[in-house]
């Protein structure tokens, strides 16, 4: 820590978490079942993401046990050859009762949302504690990331859930300083899908 006067300090120690939503796995009718493989467009997205992250040095990689996340992780990891920890802790969450963007719903108490929110935040804190000062990639799912963001910025208020959109193959980056404070660096960043031309 570096003192800067008036009792304030700069915290240099930082853990960086890359929350990566899997690439596209919807079918031709726009349906994504629980354990779909990536479609061709999703494979292109994953290759674009891999190009963007090729210069990163990840200390740890975690991944959901659902196929679309695993396949995204495998494509990205071809650039890194890291050992990956696969865990159902990072699997998709949610139900049709949860509020969604563009859908008007009446406010209601969602007990399952609160339980899920608390659980995901504890998983996140566990990763921070176990991988302190490291660069960590977590290949997971849209709702998982949205729940965590809402927990951080709105104390888990489920009404804020609908205000977040997390795109396929996007990056959401959170830095956590040595004091445990979360700094949200970027949300649903998909710039790589425009920067890199990739064919399969």
Automatic annotation (TrEMBL):
<dbReference type="InterPro" id="IPR013078">
    <property type="entry name" value="His_Pase_superF_clade-1"/>
</dbReference>
<keyword id="KW-0378">Hydrolase</keyword>
<protein>
    <recommendedName>
        <fullName>Histidine phosphatase family protein</fullName>
    </recommendedName>
</protein>
<dbReference type="GO" id="GO:0016787">
    <property type="term" value="F:hydrolase activity"/>
</dbReference>
<dbReference type="Pfam" id="PF00300">
    <property type="entry name" value="His_Phos_1"/>
</dbReference>
<dbReference type="InterPro" id="IPR029033">
    <property type="entry name" value="His_PPase_superfam"/>
</dbReference>
<dbReference type="InterPro" id="IPR051021">
    <property type="entry name" value="Mito_Ser/Thr_phosphatase"/>
</dbReference>
<feature type="binding site">
    <location>
        <position position="68"/>
    </location>
    <ligand>
        <name>substrate</name>
    </ligand>
</feature>
